[in-house]
Amino acid sequence: MSTPGGSIRNSRASTPVGSKRNSNVDGETIEQIHSERTPDHHLFPESEFAGLKRHDSLDMEAAKIGGHHGHHNTKDWGVILRLAFQSIGVVYGDIGTSPLYVYSSTFTDGIKHPDDILGVLSLIFYTITLIPVIKYVTIVLHANDNGDGGTFALYSKLCRYAKVGLIPSQQPEDQNVSNFQLELPNKRTTISSKVKNSLERSNFAKFSLLFIAMLGTSMVVGDGILTPSISVLSAVSGLKEATNSMTEGKFGTDKVGYGFAPVISVWFSLIAGIGVYNFIKYDPSVAKAINPKYIIDYFKRNGKQGWISLGGIVLAITGTEAMFADLGHFTVKSIQISMGCVVYPAIITAYSGQAAWLRKNSDLVEDTFYKSLPKPLYWPVFVVAVMAAIIASQAMISGTFSIIKQSLSLGCFPRVQVVHTSAKYEGQVYIPEMNYLLMIGCVLVTASFRTTTKIGNAYGIAVIFAETLTSGFLVVIMLVIWKTNILLVILYVLVISSTEYLYLSAVLYKFGKGGYLPFSFALALMFIMCTWNYVYRAKYNYELDHKVSREAIKDIVTDPNISHMGGLAIFYSELAHGIPPIFKHYVDNVPALHSIIVFVSIKSLPISRVAPEERFLFRRVKPNEMYVFRCVVRYGYTDVRNEKESFEKILIERLKDFIEFDYGTDPQQGRIANEDVMKLEKAWRVGVVHLVGEHEIVSREGSSLAKRFLINYAYNFMKKNLRQSYSVFDVPHKKLLKVGMTYEL
């Protein structure tokens, strides 16, 4: 045991082979199970309570309360329109700046036939209509997890409906959190049941789903690194001489939205206006590109080269995944309004105008955007283009922050600082460590590749790979959760998924010409995420195997050789079932106990947020004279853990409420409850000590070389260089006591 300055680790234990994880509450009666809130027995019959003993459940929650969803379910059109305006600056900078480089990236060898322009315009039109509009705006946004998007939101949604999670911390009372239950269709289908059962029975399927969620996250981060490089390089390509500028600042989504939205709105107005001008002046007949016949003719004329050119056309939908990843910052309606009313019309008009100009100037395709500008507008557009390109980076960067926050809460990413940047709206975050990582990656990419052609090859793979992974999750959700008609699922796969795989095949062709870059980023990030999650799960299972039984707790508390002192001790762990082994280790080294002991388990649920009134679950370890309590504190993956009011104060107030409820309404029992509350307050006044495990994680003797490397070196390096668990709750260092213990995994 130690103060923050150091720790003594003198306990080593390894996980026994074939150890059994027995509940430490066997034999407890249902009267011992209580909630912080009064249960309604009309809603929960006795039969439901009786079954809780078998699950080591803490409490049965009371009747469901109204959801705590912030602005996500708002019907206030004023809020929706404000968020729609904000989203223009945060979400669409990336897809909005694509007209800077799509035609030049597509016609890398020049335009061979005049009708090739119509074929490419037709491809751009149907690709934007099919993927950003039909797939994302119409379908994917509705697969959100209580207002939050991204691959981990889809994974969390599946974990709630099917038992595919890999952490054995599920409890029956989790089902009663107000937004835990999914709104499901009443119908049952054979296919849905078969797919669900297959997923639940297969460990391979469980690991595959988690792996895909991590891979999707890695690709979005890679997208966030490549977006600044290609957008800014394309914007400044209008200059004859090199111009270098650096900006630095820290902004959250709230400030970025209001600060950047006017600039991006001006940008969309300019490209739409110029598109209309070029369309009318040069060749209005390009409107016939709406006929998909030109796509067929284009591939007939160009064959393999036409297929390869898809790697340039796919850049027209860059930033599409940001619409879903950034959803937690906005609402479904706000994204739909901004896309349908502003973004889609503007970019389709811009591409049509450029196509009309190219029909008369096909030899200038390498610099289509700037050459097609009316001369008086050249410098104003250039200035706005550079600003828009810089802002475009924020779209994927914001999405990166969101999904890293989700993966962090689900034990799939090392602890990093998460700054909530808006007091008004939930989910708007800034992560300094990821910001620096993205900056370093962007600088390295720009310095190494220098041209938009190579970066475009890498960018296309990152974009379309992330979108195909989202489609894979969506198909599973359609089958298992939505119970969509199988014919509609097949239609989705044949039309949308097959289109994405066609584009993916084209960009993979350029793997050696820069396409390897996003896979390099993904490989590095996947190593970090998989290593952290592997040790996180192994550590949880170790604590589950070595938890302290109820009988052992009683023996320790009543041991005459252990001295007792005033004050309150709070032990922290992530173990949701039972008392963590760190407690016994502490007592073995320091044979003294405080007058009141509270074991706090920090638990992340696979939902976006948990209402404050549903967060704390308590149980009193019997007999009452021991004054030992267990508490599970539940958070969603977007919840703020550093509340304005200290965690310690909130915990004590909720514990008082629980004690008063625990004794019921009988006057005599009420007097005992008052005495216990007074004892708690006295202990609080005497002093509180927060005990946190300072675990040394090592591989068990005889482990393979790979396992030793992952645990002893990779994991411990990350652990030592990132945030500690106690910093999550802003525990004052003067009240903090770290207990050292070695876990052999």
From TrEMBL:
Highest taxon listed in the record's lineage: Eukaryota
Which GO molecular function entries does the Swiss-Prot or TrEMBL record give?
potassium ion transmembrane transporter activity
Name the membrane topology term. Multi-pass membrane protein
Q: Where is the K+ potassium transporter integral membrane domain?
A: 83-552
Q: Where is the composition biased (Polar residues)?
A: 1-26
So what family is this one in? Belongs to the HAK/KUP transporter (TC 2.A.72.3) family.
- Can you say what this protein is called? Potassium transporter
